[in-house]
Structures are given as C-alpha cells and as structure tokens.
Amino acid sequence: MTWAPERVSTLQLSKSTPLQLLRALDSGPRGLVDSDAEARLARYGENVLPARRVPALPIVFLRSLRDPFTAVLAGLALVSTLVAAWATASVIVVLVVVSCALRAAGEHRADRSAARLRHLVASTATVLRRADEDAAPVAREVPVDQVVPGDVVRLAPGDLVPADLRLLRASGLTMHQAALTGESAPVAKYPVDEPARTPPPAGARVDETRTDETRTDETRTGTGTADASPSGARVFALGEEDFDRPEVCFQGSSVASGSGTGVVMATGVDTRFAAADRAPRDDQRTTAFDRSVYGISWILIRFMLLTPPLVLMANAALRGRGLETLPFAVAVAVGLTPEMLPVIVTTTLARGASALARTHQVIVKRLPALHDLGAVDVVCLDKTGTLTQDRPVVDCALDISGAPDDAVLRWAAVNSLWTLRLADMPCPDALDEALLDAVEERLVTGLAALEYDAVAALPFDPVRRLSTAVIATPGRLGHHTLVVKGAAEDVLERCELTEEERGRARALADRLAADGLRVLAVALAERPATARPYAAADEHGLTFRGLVGLRDAADESAASALTALSHRGVAIKVLTGDHPGTAARACRELGLHPGDVVTAASFDALSDAELGELAASTTVFARCSPAHKARLVRVLRERGHVTGFLGDGVNDLPALRACDVGICPPGAVDVVRETADVVLAAKDLTSLDHAIAAGRAGGATIASYLRITLSSNLGNVIAMLTAGLLLPFLPMLPSQVLVQNLCFDAAQLAFAHERPRAAALRRPLKLRPREVLFSVTGFGVLNAAADLATFAVLVWALSGTRAQTPFHAGWFTENLLTQALVMVLLRTGRGGGIPVTAGVLALTGLLLPLSPLGPLIGMGALPLAYYPLLAIVLALYAGALHWRTRGARWPVPPA
C-alpha cells in the first residue's frame, strides 16, 4: 500500500474521527506493512530533529570579521597600504588576524563541547509492524529514527514519545509535558471521537492530584490544521494551545503512568517539538556586549574617520602642507584606536570561558555571552527542571482534623504498591514512587508495613481520577478492604460524611492546594468477600481517612545558588507555566520570598510600560505561556536591565532568544541546548554564580584596559594635533608614531592576565559608552596637558632651536613614560605582571632614542637638562592622576 499525502486535508485532520484519520494516513490499528514503512522512510526521511552541525573553523573565523571594530581596523590597513605605509598596514593586519583567530578558536571549541552533550529524544519505540498484508501484527522495538507517519505506537510508563501521535486507545495514561509547557503535574491523555474544541468534561480533567479550584485557567481549547511540511507531506500543525488536547501526545513528552496506543501523525522536522526550534529569531536584538564594547567602538570609529581629513585640512590651511601629511594623519587615527581591543577582549573572554569549562563544567558557546553574564542584573528562570527536579516528594499526611497521621501515608502507599503489582505495571509513576519512598523513610518497618494478601486492583484512569486496591482484611476472614486514593474531590464524593465533615475535608484540601501542594485523598471501605470481579461501581460508601500533600522536589543546589546570586546583586524572576501556589511554595522552600504571585492572564491587557512597572516589583509570574515569558524578558530589557534566562524546555525557547544571555541546565532538551549561549554541564546551579563571577572578572579587565588605553590615546592625539599646528614640522614622524603604538600595544597584552579585585565582582558591571567616554575625557585632558607641558619643556631645553631629531626623541620618551604611569596608576586589578611590563615600557622610552635604533627612526640624544624637567612634569602628572582617580567612578555602576 502507498500513502498518498494529498488525501490528508485540513478538514480531515481537524474534524476527523480516529478511523477517518487512519484512513487519511493509509494506516490501520494493525500497523504498517514493513515494505510500506520502508517506502515512507525513504520518502519523508528519518525521524530526527534538524541536524545542527558545528561550523568549520574557517567559517567561524570569517564570521568574526563582522565585528565593526575589526572592520574599521581592516579599513585603516587598506588606507595605510594606499599611502605606502607598509609597516602600519602590516601591524594592523597582524592584530586583526590574531584577534579573529583567538575568537574563532574559542567559539569553535565551545561549539564542539556543546555538540558532545547532544542526545536523542528517545532511543527506541514500540511499534506494530507486519511482514505482509495478511500477517498478524507484531510489536517490535525499532530505533526512533525509523518511526514514520502512520506507524501505530504503543506507550508504557517511562517511555518517551517518539513523534507527534493521536491516541487510539489508552488506560490511565498521563504524560509529563514539562519540557513543552512548564506544567510540572502529569497531564491526562485519552482518545476522543472528535478533536476537542471545548474544554473536556469535568470528569476527564488532567490531574488526579488537583481540585477544580487549582485548575481554573489550566484547560484551554485547541484546534488543529493541516499544513505543508518542508518535506512536502501534509502534517498536523499544532499551536501552543494544542498541548492541552487530550487525544494528542507530543514528541518530547514522556509517559508518567498508564498505557496507550496511538498513530503517528508527524515525525522529524514536522513535529511540534521541531517547530519550536524553527521559530523566528530576533535578528535585531542587541546584547549587553553590543551596547557596551561595540557602543564605545562606534564612537571611537567616528572620531577616527574624522581625524585624517581634519589633520589634512588644518595643515593645508595653516602650514601649506598637502598630501605629504596623509601618512601622519593615518598614523594619528591609528594612535586614537585601541588596536588591541579585539585581542584583549577575545583573549580575556576565551581564558575565562576555558577556565569555566575546566573547573566548573560551564560551556560558553558565544564568547561575548561571558561579558553579558558579568553585566546581568536580572536572571529570569523557569521553575520546573531548574529550581525543582520535576519529581514529587511527600510533604505531609493529615487526618480530617489536619493533624499528622502516618496511617494515611501507609494506606496511600498500600494502594500504590498493590495497584502497581496487580495491574502488571512495569514501573511506578512519579506519585506512587514518591509514596513508596516516603514509607521507606518515615515508617520504622518500611515497605514491610505494606504487605497484605492482595485480591484485585482498579488502576487510575483520568475519568474516575482515582485508583483502588483490594486486600484481604487483616484478622477478618471473608472480608475485603478497598483502599482508594485519588483526587480529593472525586474521593470525597464517594465517602459517607456529614456535611460538616465534608466541608472540613474540602477546606483542608483547598488549603493544601493553595499552599502549592498536589493533594491526594485516601479512603477505605470494608466489604464481604465476593468472587465476582471488582468494578468502579464498588467505589462508594467509603470511610475518609485523610489527605496526602506532595510537592516538587527542590534542586539540591538551587537554594545556595539563589543566595549566591542575591549576594552578587542579581534579582531573580520566576516565570513558570505552573500553578501560582506551586510556584510560590517552591520559592519559599528555596529561601526566595515570592511576594504576590501574578498570573499571566492578569497582565495580558497591560501595556508594555505598565507591565514593566509590574515586573520591577514582582518575583513570580505563574501560568506563563512561551509568549508571556518572552514578553516579560523583553520588557525588562527595555527598562535597561541586562537579562539572563535559565530554562530547559521547548516552552522556554522564545524567552531564551529574547534575553541578553540564554542559559540552560544539563537536563535541557536538545533544541534548548543548541539555542542557549551558556550550557551548565554540571548538575549544580551554583555553577551559574561562578559563570557570572567569571563574566564580571572579564568585564572588569576589559574596562581597565579601555580606561587606560583611551585616556592615554586621547591625550596623545589632542597634544599631537595641537603641536602639529604650532610647529613648522610634524611633532612625530609616522614611523615613530607606529613604533610608539607597537610598544604600548605589546605592553597592553598584560591586561589579559590581570585579576580583578573582589570588589569588582560584587555588583553587575555595566559599561555605558557615553559615561565611559565622559570619564575617559577627564584623564585624556590630563594626559594632553602633560604632553603640552613637555612640549614647552622641549622648546626651552632645546633653546628655541627647530631641531626635529631631539624634539621627536623627547616627545617619544615622554609619551612612553606617561603611558607606563597610566598603566600602573589607573589599573583596577592585580597580578598580570603590569608593574613589570610598565617598567619595561618606561625603560624602552628612555633607552630607545639613545640606542643604535634611534637614528634609524629619526631620533637622537637629548640634552641632560631635559630629564629633570621631565621628571617634574611626570610627578605633577602622577599627582593629578591620583587625585582624578579618587574622584572617578569606574567601572560605571548600575543605575
């Protein structure tokens, strides 16, 4: 048989019954024939997510050339080549190549490390296949990538759903969809004759542990349409609202309990899981790195581009010089440029990223993201999978009066154990497992207290929302005890209680649910032994025993991680799809004060400005869809915050793409790990604190470099332009400017190894371009004043002569000495060998003009009277720097 995809229309898929759907897919309850499955696999491809290849190193290198500062340096190299300034052009090209090579190597290494974390959504799936048309169907374990549309798949507890499928049969089936929706509670799935267009009936609600009051806005309508897939097949197109459709199971979810059989509607790139990865990215998004380092670079670039024509015009107007000053003009422009900025930035961030990967198992996939981490002042995170383990644990077991009662826990565990054994379930679901673990921990006799003569079991199903185990009543021959547990409302309906008792039990259940607990009710009934099979009709006239409250298990490292982030001045915002009470309780257990929890529905009508005000004062947002999370992150960024987002599920993808830096834990789904900028490979959230500290260390080093380099370069350029207009000759030859820049650039490499002081790591580091340049201007003016004072000293020391050679030597020496002073006095870190490097730079300035190399670049010996006067100028300059440093605020503190 051959599948004809054109037969599958929008009308058929949105309104079809299961039988019509099977016909549209050219399949049936007995599964596919092997030959047909092979044909479909060849036509529509393997059931795998779109391949994510690690870009080759040359490609990463070419991408790094898009850095605006690197592009301008390349432009200056071209201009230098055009005016035959070969040495200048060569040095600039070397700097560009070194910077791009370092960045490419670091990012390529991070990409390969992240690629090693990839794993398939599932390894095998159980499908019904037939050898030929007349053969009986056989359940086979096939690799997930061999599953095709039309396959009939069987699901059991613990199975990962291999593709998007429509249920044909189900028994007590519940699914974990936290990776897709953020909802930590299992979701009930069951077949329906028509796709749901209205909320399912009350008896078919999702969770056996929730009351109606705790699920008020949880059930949404869903509609499906057919659309053309990239492969050409017509597939089921699903939106966010469709995750609540009870008849559809999605790739990326897993079976919590029960069993089911379904037909595959979409595989590979056509699944909803893959569609989330194809969501449009915000290509116009600028990160904190772009706004700081790039912002400063663009301001400098404007000055650089203006400098050569200004120098040419001024010299032409005042000195009658023409194009012969062009090499000098280009040299001055290069002198204004912090040529080592790309190298320092890349080296600093690469060293920090390498240390994080080596010591804390944090993979930084995009090097500028490390700088962004240092600037982060708000971390938004999902609850499930990040703060909690997506695993329930027993919090309390209470009788009807609200008093602790271990007997309630024991009876609940009796139900779990014997329902599991007698219903032939392969493994317990998460709730049953939590009850059995709690009995082992809390009861002296452990699981031995659950040993009874079991008779029968009625497993949980989403319509009754309860399960029953039948045991022989101890000490009463001929009697059986029904042990019932399930959703509080459904169990209470079957209990014999007075109105007062029923009201107290409901109030207690509501109080536990409002406190964020998932509630199970436990009841018993004694019946005369009977040979007939037990049925749901026997679940009446029960004696209420009490309630069991379960909560999500907190991540072991979450509390300490949140405390560490708080000490670093980082605000926490919890954006979750879970219930408000559940989210608030998880926060309280981790020491995070939730305040008033805001649900997404309550801020839908607010403008971005109003939502921004609300977000500033709110810690927890519940019932958030992916779009809500992305909007909250965007609004926070628009208010000037640098945002990080920590998430692990497909529902977190839009927020990960909207924030400044996306972060994911080790258990994140594949597409999230590919999207995130930073991957926490260790199961320890405190590694995020280490990553932020490393980011701040790198940012402080970059800030220190910018402060020193820009101050010195700006002062030198101002003084050189001024002197160039006052002197009948150029204040320095282009070759001398180049050598001076080379010496200073070589010394600046020490900044990449500087260690910032602890104070720089306590608060978020933000480099605001205008404020940075305003601060630098003050230091630059001081430097220019020192240079011009040296100019006056040289004029006096040389007795008014117009000798170019000693003048060039004197100014060359003073420039390197002032730059050495700036390196020592303005640095904010420690280590890195900066004092030693500055000393070498100072000696170079003193000795180079006197060495045999001096005459080769147009410099000669200076009169001895110059050096004492220069010492006075330098002492005054050092005192002014010290005074200015005490009054300066650097790095720029957050607003």
Quick overview of this protein structure:
The protein is α/β, with parallel strands linked by helices and 895 residues long.
CATH topology of the largest domain: Calcium-transporting ATPase, transmembrane domain
Structural class, judged by helices and strands?
A: alpha/beta
What Rg is obtained from the alpha carbons, in whole angstroms?
36 Å
Q: What's the pLDDT, averaged over the residues?
A: 78
Number of strands: 26
CATH superfamily of the largest domain: Calcium-transporting ATPase, transmembrane domain
Number of continuous helical runs: 30
Described by its quaternary structure, the protein is: single chain
Q: Kindly provide the name of the CATH class of the largest domain.
A: Mainly Alpha
Query: Judging from the principal axes of the Cα atoms, what is the shape?
Result: elongated
Largest sheet: 8 strands, mixed
Give a topology summary.
Layout: H1 10-15, H2 18-24, E1 32-33, H3 34-44, H4 57-64, H5 68-82, H6 86-115, E2 124-130, E3 138-143, E4 152-155, E5 164-176, H7 178-181, E6 187-188, E7 225-228, E8 234-237, E9 248-249, E10 254-266, H8 272-277, H9 288-318, H10 326-336, H11 341-359, E11 362-364, H12 368-375, E12 378-381, E13 388-398, H13 406-422, H14 430-442, E14 454-461, E15 466-472, E16 479-487, H15 488-493, H16 499-514, E17 518-528, E18 543-554, H17 558-567, E19 571-575, H18 580-589, E20 598-599, H19 600-603, H20 608-617, E21 620-622, H21 626-638, E22 643-646, H22 653-658, E23 661-664, H23 670-675, E24 678-680, H24 686-726, H25 734-748, E25 755-756, H26 769-797, H27 804-825, E26 829-830, H28 834-847, H29 853-856, H30 866-887
Parallel strand pairs: 1-2, 12-19, 12-22, 19-21, 20-21, 22-23, 23-24
Antiparallel strand pairs: 2-3, 2-4, 4-10, 5-6, 5-9, 5-10, 7-8, 11-24, 13-18, 14-15, 15-16, 16-17, 17-18, 25-26
